[in-house]
Amino acid sequence: LKNNELFITKGKSKAINEGIIIDADNFKYNKIKNIINAYGNVKIDNQDENYLIYTDEATYQKNKELFITKGKSKAINEGIIIDADNFEYNKSKNVINANGNVAIDNKDENYLIYADDATYLKNEQLFLTKGQSKAINEDIVIHGDNFEYNRIDNTINAEGNVKIEDTLNDYLIIANEATYFKNSEKLITQGETKADIQSKYFITSKDVTYLHNEKIISSKHKTKLQDNKSQVYFADRFNYSINEEIIEGENFLVITNYNLPKSDKFFLDSATVDLRQNKFVAKNTKIEVHKDVF
Question: What pTM did the predictor assign?
Answer without folding.
Answer: 0.87
